[in-house]
Design a protein that fits this description.
Elements (H helix, E strand, L loop, with lengths): L7 E5 L6 H15 L6 E5 L5 H8 L4 E5 L16 H6 L4 E4 L2 H7 L3 H14 L2 E6 L3 H5 L3 H12 L12 E4 L13 H18 L2 H6 L1 E4 L8 H5 L6 E4 L6 H8 L3
Parallel strand pairs: 1-2, 1-8, 2-3, 3-4, 4-5, 5-6, 6-7
Length: 253
Amino acid sequence: MNPKRRPILAGNWKMNMTAAQARDLAGKLVPLVSGVTGRDIVLGPPFTALAAVAETIKGTNVSLSAQDLHWEDKGAFTGEISAEMLLDLGCRYVIIGHSERRQYFGETDETVNKKVRQALKKGLLPILCVGETLAEREAGKLNEIISRQVTGGLKDIPTSDMQKIVIAYEPVWAIGTGKTATPEQANEVHALIRRKIKALYSADIAEGLRIQYGGSVTPENVSTLMAMPDIDGALVGGASLKPESFAALVNFK
């Protein structure tokens, strides 16, 4: 963690929690993190629970994120959600290109890029996810995959918008598996992403970019991950569904 970059801890609740359950979880979490300063705390409930969580965290130090959005303003896109709808519900952030979206729902670098551009256009802060599969890592394609996803996801994004973007590195093989990249492995990829941003933009932009790690982050391993110089936060799955666990993550030493 670089002291110049403000840490960001985000919980991705995925397809879990009814509105009532989400309200209960957020209600228990808020007092546990109310004294936290100097860190951004973000909750990403499913679409159906956004309104309930927005109400519960209103006026607190916790921000709201959606898990996806559509790249068009509105129209005949059955089942989709627009940026305007998310803003209407109080969202500040939106997770884009999560590996599960890429793996199960056909997301590509092109659609991810369209979503990032739409989010920025409408005033949402994108959390752009990138990451390699185990097969890709073992085949020596790590650099190629990460570089392609970063370059593709940020296509036509002007320098002026880069300070609004967070990148989340998630090795696909470490999501929900209990396997975690070692702090050194994770930091190595974060440094690679930072070098790519420097090449695409500038040293200043790269230095200011916040890069989260996602992949079986727990209260037990968060401090060693956050001690790494290029890791600026965590995108947390399972542990974010338990208020005490997520609060412990947010309060890492």
